[in-house]
User: Fold Endonuclease/exonuclease/phosphatase domain-containing protein from Daphnia pulex.
Amino acid sequence: VNKIEALNELVSDARPDILAITETWLTPTNGDHELAACCPSGFSAVHQPRASRRGGGVAVIFKSTISVRRHSHPTFNSFELIDCSLSLRPIAIRLLVVYRPPASSHSVFRDEFSSLLEQIALTNEKLLIVGDFNLSIRDQPDDAAQRLLDSTEAFGLSQLVTSATHEGGSILDLVFTRSSDDLVRGTSVLGFFSDHRPVLVSLSCRSPRFPSMPISFRRLRDIDPEAFVHDIERLNLITDPSDALDCLVAQYNDGLRSLIDKHAPVVTKNV
Assistant:
């Protein structure tokens, strides 16, 4: 959620109804406020922060016209979870967002995730499980990744992402659904948002009605690095730095603000 401009750009370009986010880095004390502040206009959010230490956290951002009900679970040791029922009339979707930290035990994850699947397997809602599993399934899955695929297949779930989602070329961000639900039309992987690429999931249901609202963002990904560095080298901060600390700070703030406005001006669109 420190990528608010990029989040707004993603909403403007992809026009999603629902966003599932991992590694929010929100905390139990400030998470609600920070998440509300970064929600695009017309969207609401729910989240589950990591309770014990920095990092992690999962969230769902959704159009405010969608009815959302959360389900509670005991804390898992090997992964983080937010579990929601979404009402997109006439269908109901059970959405689970999972984040498995890279260092978590494979064996504990296998047992805990299988236990979760047992709990939700008989839901009458259309089931959708998404998230960053930090297990690469591309080409030749390793043992832990193959066990995950075998376990989900045993519960009638199919994994739908087929293109790399991480800058290292791995498929770490996964989408599981039941074929019998006929919920997902297709998936596609978008441009890099961070070291991960967003996965766009197209659902077989009507998009909820949503009034047009303005959203502002900067196209930071379109900045030409060479031109940006060229202009930085010509700032007064570099060519004629002030001897006074307050003036030096002003040179820094004003100079960088002017460069951002030049190379990535604020764009406002109705979405």
